[in-house]
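Table S4 entry, receptor protein-tyrosine kinase.
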Amino acid sequence: MRQSKTLLLFAIGFCCVMVSEGACNRTRYVQHNGVLVVNSTISSQVLNASGVTSVEACAMLCGMKSCSAAVFWKSSDLCQLVTVSREPGFAGNNEWRLLGSETAEAVVMKLENFEELMKPRIINVTRVFTNNGTGRIGSVQLVTIDIAGCYRIQLAGAKGGDNTYVSPDELGGRGALAAGNVSLSVGVQLSIVVGQAGGPSQSSGYSSGGGGGGSFVYRTSNNELLMAAGGGGGASYGYS
Ligand SMILES: *[C@@H]1O[C@H](CO)[C@@H](O)[C@H](O)[C@H]1NC(C)=O
Ligand SMILES: *[C@@H]1O[C@H](CO)[C@@H](O)[C@H](O)[C@H]1NC(C)=O
Ligand SMILES: *[C@@H]1O[C@H](CO)[C@@H](O)[C@H](O)[C@H]1NC(C)=O
Ligand SMILES: *[C@@H]1O[C@H](CO)[C@@H](O)[C@H](O)[C@H]1NC(C)=O
Ligand SMILES: *[C@@H]1O[C@H](CO)[C@@H](O)[C@H](O)[C@H]1NC(C)=O
Ligand SMILES: *[C@@H]1O[C@H](CO)[C@@H](O)[C@H](O)[C@H]1NC(C)=O
């Protein structure tokens, strides 16, 4: 006789006394066969609750804590509560997690829409920083990450100064462009230095423009450089 696989379905309903919508929120967990992989593209958190003696109690606890998945370890009465989120401010870590085990000693449960939650989403949180001074005056600008994820950083070095004393004008070189993707977790603060344009030549055609400043992005906490783009050279004396 063929035996069909049974799907454990945990339905946890809890009605709050004061819910204005009057609706009962039901959190549904389904069993996941094998190891559940949460990769580093999503922020996740695991909380160990000990002394949990049944898979139902573990699922209930998970529902109460609004967690996304749970692992119940039969032999050690351990219930691991897993939360994944892309919400701003969620203080999880972007790391690879292998939840559960290939052996039968662990039961892995996950929200019915777990795969939906895990789907990569592009959230447009574009921030543009420009130089906020002129010449030698400027300041380091700071940004603190509040949504964990993969960020694209595009940098441009500043243009070198022109020489306007010659005809036609001799133009300064353009700054370098650099771009790359980095994975950043919540709370990381980046320091941003935006290069400023080199000044023009000051007198006769024999003087040259100033070099453009470079642009840099580094982690504030340890000064680790993430990206840099050099500035353009200043225009030299040009024969006319
Ligand atoms: C539970 O109810 C609240 C309020 O109606 C709603 O915002 C939330 O999305 C519900 N949660 C689930 C998992 O359906
Ligand atoms: C939670 O339990 C797992 C499995 O026993 C263990 O590997 C992990 O180190 C525990 N985490 C914490 C924070 O105690
Ligand atoms: C991470 O997991 C999501 C959801 O399962 C998947 O769509 C994505 O391709 C995975 N990314 C990597 C780098 O493994
Ligand atoms: C994101 O927003 C920026 C600024 O509002 C815009 O220039 C850019 O086109 C947007 N990108 C996507 C993929 O929507
Ligand atoms: C330059 O950036 C700093 C730090 O973000 C800020 O405090 C300052 O007001 C900015 N200055 C200008 C002129 O925008
Ligand atoms: C970096 O992210 C952009 C989307 O912003 C994507 O088009 C590009 O393929 C990514 N590059 C790499 C090397 O992953």
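The longest helix spans residues 55-64.
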